[in-house]
Design brief:
Layout (H helix, E strand, L loop, with lengths): L1 E3 L18 H8 L3 E5 L2 E4 L1 H20 L3 E2 L5 E3 L1 H5 L2 H4 L5 E4 L5 E4 L4 H11 L8 E10 L14 E11 L2 H22 L4 E4 L9 E8 L5 E6 L4 E3 L20 E4 L6 H13 L13 E11 L2 E11 L6 H7 L11 E4 L2 H5 L29 E4 L8 E5 L5 E7 L8 E2 L18 E16 L1 H5 L3 E3 L5 E3 L1 E8 H11 L1 E2 L2 E2 L10 E5 L4 H16 L4 E4 L6 H11 L3 E5 L7 E6 L5 E5 L3 H10 L2
Parallel strand pairs: 1-29, 4-8, 15-19, 16-18, 18-21, 28-29, 28-30
Antiparallel strand pairs: 2-3, 5-7, 6-7, 8-9, 9-25, 10-11, 11-22, 12-13, 12-22, 14-20, 15-16, 15-17, 19-20, 22-25, 23-24, 26-27, 30-31, 31-32
Helix pairs in contact: 1-11, 2-6, 2-11
The structure holds adenosine-5'-triphosphate (ATP) and magnesium ion.
């Protein structure tokens, strides 16, 4: 088909939109692919829609090829199914909730596990009906705390979500593997580099989960990899735990004066001064010999500000995202978590917590922190706090620290938690070498959900022995609109977009440059011949637009091949330019169509 610039519903912009922080956002708006309708909510214009449809098409083909079947659910859904799985509440502020005229509760679906589960329950009842994989490509709604970067984090966005249903664990394993393979094909065809990384299952529950991250500095996810092939989202990295230490001969702990040492640096300096004066055995010490006790506040939709204390080696910082991913197992209820450092008012409610001098305490066999007053404070420790490890830590009195406080002898804890930052150089948990860190955008996510949703919604089938068994499920998502943004992000230069051929809004952009009937007629003829050869063509046939503007627009729009029909005609040539390499060649008018067709078939 030939799309005429003279008729196209398009206004390219010379100025960057003021709210755009990243290149993809800037360029997609400037090139007239999308327009903002509200924060995190975008309208698709004709060229944008073409790219979107191509991305969807590739995803659809690969999902069909793996045997998944397409369905389409409403986005507007009743409350009850989400109540049954508790997600109506647990989703917290991220869920768009609304009411109909009778006052009944509805939501705009953030993801559709419940509905797919109920649909299968509605229609299927035997193991003979399984395995089954269903998918849809559909709008999702999430009231993101920080919608950002245009399509990358929207409040309305398109997701391909699929769900697998199996009668047993081996079946789920196979469905999961099939999705994983399909995802790798999808991203390869899109021309989007991805790294599959181990992830935490988080609020979704389930046993196994991987994310497909597109490496880029503007990504919001941090992941690590080792030369030996380990790759994980930082949230999922586990610490290599040192062996327990025999503490039979360890000297008793001593409380010593360490005035004015509210920080780890001042503490280490004071501790070494104390040792130098012969008042304490041991040393010299570094930050990793100290136990830092960090006070955090956890909030859930149904839990008000709960104070939790975490003890970590003093040289390690807390990573709140890691805490968010791991602390759920220590809490009585689930839901969207908020974690923050405790403020002055939180500390004021717990007078035994002396800022800068907090420690697990000496006085009882259990953590003092765990027994504070009548309200028990939860005390968790880093995995490096193994039995027998000896620490310098706060004595719960201003200006005093305890030296030689031995874990498992002098203090205990309520649980062990992964909470500290993962650093470059840390060992990979599988022994495959030191870790490197990188940033990425999450393009897809696959979960082996297990039986959580099926059990909550009572999806059972009869197995071979005529027994009712709960179905086991997987859930799999690809961010479709996010993929368009990620493609724009990794395929542009300072002049504009540079689409990979597989998703470009057209195969070729023919520009009539200058004046004169012959130029316009030749451009028309070449466009028509390219169309006849099966290519999608944009033809810049605007009569009174300067060559500079036309070239500028062609480079901004980012179609892979640009044919300029202009002054060269007197010599019988047109200029054909590859948008990516920038290489331009003069090609005889009669050879132009063949040249472009050949170029468009190469990658
Ligand atoms: P994120 O960590 O980026 O918030 P998520 O883990 O909440 O994503 P999933 O529930 O796993 O997302 O959704 C599946 C896919 O949908 C993600 O891998 C991502 O590509 C896409 N996606 C999720 N949230 C958004 C959003 N707000 N805007 C655009 N795409 C999104
Ligand atoms: Mg995810």
């Amino acid at each position: 088909m030939v799309t005429r610039m003279s008729k196209l519903f398009l206004r390219t912009l010379r100025e960057d939109p003021v709210d755009a922080e990243v290149a993809s956002h800037r360029l997609l708006v400037r090139a007239g692919y999308i327009r903002r309708a509200a924060p995190g909510i975008y309208t698709w214009l004709p060229l944008g829609l073409k790219v979107l449809r191509k991305v969807e098409g590739i995803i659809r083909e690969e999902m069909d090829a793996m045997g998944a079947q397409e369905v389409h659910f409403p986005a507007l859904l009743p409350r009850e199914p989400y109540e049954a799985t508790n997600r109506w509440t647990e989703y917290g502020e991220g869920l768009f909730r609304l009411q109909d005229r009778k006052g009944a509760d509805y939501l705009l679906a953030p993801t559709h596990e419940e509905m797919f589960t109920l649909l299968v329950k509605d229609l299927f009842s035997s193991y003979k009906d399984l395995p089954l994989s269903l998918y849809q490509i559909q709008n999702k709604y999430r009231d993101e705390a920080r919608p950002r970067a245009g399509l990358l984090r929207g409040r309305e966005f398109i997701m391909k979500d699929s769900y697998s249903f199996d009668v047993d664990d081996a079946g789920l394993e196979a469905s999961y593997a099939a999705h994983r393979a399909a995802y790798l094909k999808i991203f390869a065809r899109l021309g989007l580099e991805v790294v599959p990384v181990s992830a935490t299952a988080g609020a979704m529950g389930g046993s196994r989960s991987e994310e497909f991250l597109h490496p880029t500095d503007i990504g919001e996810d941090t992941f690590v990899r080792s030369a030996g092939g380990y790759a994980a989202n930082v949230e999922a990295v586990t610490t290599v735990v040192p062996a327990d230490i025999d503490f039979t001969d360890a000297p008793p702990a001593r409380v010593l004066d360490t005035p004015d040492t509210p920080t780890i640096d001042t503490l280490v300096a004071a501790a070494n001064a104390v040792a130098a004066r012969g008042e304490a055995d041991g040393g010299p010490w570094t930050a990793s010999d100290t136990l830092k006790n960090v006070v955090l506040v956890v909030t859930l939709p149904t839990l008000e500000r709960q104070v939790v204390v975490i003890g970590v080696p003093g040289d390690r910082a807390i990573d709140l995202k890691r805490v968010e991913a791991t602390i759920g197992e220590f809490l009585p209820i689930g839901g969207e978590l908020r974690i923050e450092a405790a403020g002055e008012s939180d500390l004021a409610k717990h007078p035994l917590l002396v800022k800068g001098y907090i420690g697990p305490g000496l006085t009882t066999e259990h953590a003092v922190l765990g027994l504070e007053g009548s309200t028990k404070l939860m005390y968790l420790v880093d995995p490096r706090v193994v039995a027998g490890s000896s620490w310098i830590t706060g004595a719960n009195t201003a200006g005093k620290h305890v030296f030689g406080l031995v874990a498992g002898r002098d203090f205990g804890w309520d649980g062990v938690i992964e909470s500290t930052e993962v650093r470059a150089g840390d060992p990979a948990p599988d022994g495959s070498g030191p870790l490197e860190t990188a940033r990425g955008i999450e393009m897809g996510h696959i979960f082996a959900l297990g039986r959580k949703y099926a059990a909550a919604l009572d999806l059972k089938v009869l197995d071979q022995n005529g027994k009712q068994v709960v179905v086991t499920m997987g859930s799999y998502g690809v961010g479709v609109t996010r993929a368009v943004a990620a493609l724009a992000e990794s395929n542009h230069d300072d002049k504009g977009l540079i689409w990979p051929r597989t998703v470009a809004p057209a195969d070729v952009h023919v520009v009539a440059v200058g004046r004169g009937e012959e130029i316009f007629e030749t451009a028309e003829r070449i466009a028509a011949e390219l169309e006849a050869a099966g290519l999608d063509v944009i033809l810049d046939d605007r009569p009174k637009v300067s060559p500079g503007v036309k070239f500028g627009d062609a480079e901004l729009l980012g179609v892979p091949t640009i044919v300029a029909v202009g002054r060269g005609l007197v010599d019988g040539v047109v200029e054909i330019k590859d948008r990516r390499s920038g290489v331009a060649e003069n090609v005889a008018v009669d050879a132009a169509v063949t040249y472009v067709v050949t170029a468009s078939r190469s990658q």
